[in-house]
Amino acid sequence: MARNTAVSADADAPPITRALARFVATHPSRGWSEAVEREAHRTLLNWLGCAVGAARHEATEAALAAVQMLQPAPQATVLGRRERVDMASAALVNGIASHTFDFDDTHLKTIIHPAGPVASALLALAEVQGASGRALIDALVLGIDVSCRMGNLMYPAHYDRGWHITGSTGMLGAAAGCARLLGLDEPQTTMALGIAASQPVGLREQFGTMTKPLHPGAAARAGLMSALLARHGYTASPRALEAARGYAQVVSTECAWHEATDELGARFEISFNSYKPYACGIVIHPSIEACARLREQGVSPAQIERIELKVHPLVLELTGKKEPADGLAAKFSVYHGCAAGLVFGCAGEAEFSDAVVNRADVVALRRKVVASVDARIAEDAVEATAWLTDGRRVQVVVEHALGSTERPMSDAALDAKFHGLADPVLGAPRCNELIEACRGAASAPDLRRLAALAQP
Description:
This protein has helices spanning 16-26, 34-53, 58-68, 87-100, 115-129, 133-154, 157-160, 165-182, 186-197, 211-231, 247-251, 285-296, 313-319, 327-330, 334-344, 354-357, 360-366, 411-426, 428-439, 448-453, and strands spanning 76-77, 84-85, 106-107, 273-274, 304-311, 369-373, 382-388, 393-398. It has 456 residues and is an alpha+beta fold. The protein has two domains: 16-275 and 434-453, Orthogonal Bundle (2-methylcitrate dehydratase PrpD), CATH 1.10.4100; 282-398, CATH 3.30.1330.120. The strands form three sheets. The protein has a four-stranded mixed beta sheet. A two-stranded antiparallel sheet has the order 1-2. It has a two-stranded antiparallel sheet with strand order 3-4. The longest helix is centred in the N-terminal third of the chain and has 22 residues, at 133-154.
């Protein structure tokens, strides 16, 4: 994950609000390669599995209970549940659910999880509008492009200030995608982006709590509402993204303006989307994989005297929790990730349950993990050395973790992940239908059948 070379913010920034609005409003349908089209469908499938899988999680239950107090009209589906709510609430709850397990897609350059805000807003709106699958896929590609281009423009300075970049760019992607789905013209789309620019959400302080998945859900709702407001004539600054007191220069100390428009319409950021094989912060993945490899080589937890890790600096900054008390906190503990990899050989949602996190053998093992920063180590790499009680030393080097752009998950692996998440909610036969519906989404006359399949 290369870090962006940025320039200082200034008052003479280019008119990127209008440029992005023109792109979203006028780019031709399916105006991209087959590889981009395939990735859009893989992104939709991965997002849907994550959202359905978390349908009964306490965070989803709490969010649904809260929005139901508003007595919303039953417009749109809550994925993995029988309830229906208004489309803004569906965008919120499905966005929360899709990020609750920390198992969602990742744009590795910026660590944005782009589908949560964008897809959650789009599916809710598509149900109400009766939009075609083709229109949704077009809007998904373009909305994700806006989110990630704005992330490219501000990363890492924006992230380093403490913003959760998924939420704080997601409302822009959701607004752009919904504007496209509504058929807004360039001036209206400019207004939608301008309205959304005043609604960034998400602080990194919330990592390890239910409020972290609130961020993509709130961004989805904000983006959807921004597009609806613009459709009905609500106004905003046409320079809301780039102005001296506008979005980018307020929330970031550095802005690489060219990132918003370089190769616009030729390079699509969804091409760089990746999918997680493990249900936790992506910087932990190399360490989990290394410990799973130790297990495959016959190393058992009982043989471990200590495990030494050499990791990228972000690993300890983001996932340095040594004594996580529950599953949500453990998703930000490289120490727990290592223990899960060695004990179970995997790290799905079950390995981040509260019960597993507090198991005596797991706690004892993670206390034997020692991590140190090495600036030479890439973000998707690790050097892990196990010191055994018999004096032996076993080393594993992961150069690129599974799920990175160098080692992407296969379609079969994504299907297996989907089944692992959604089968307990919907059953395997229904999930097979849902996978096929996602794969063929672009040819669907509308998305209502897909949404119906996602209900038990």
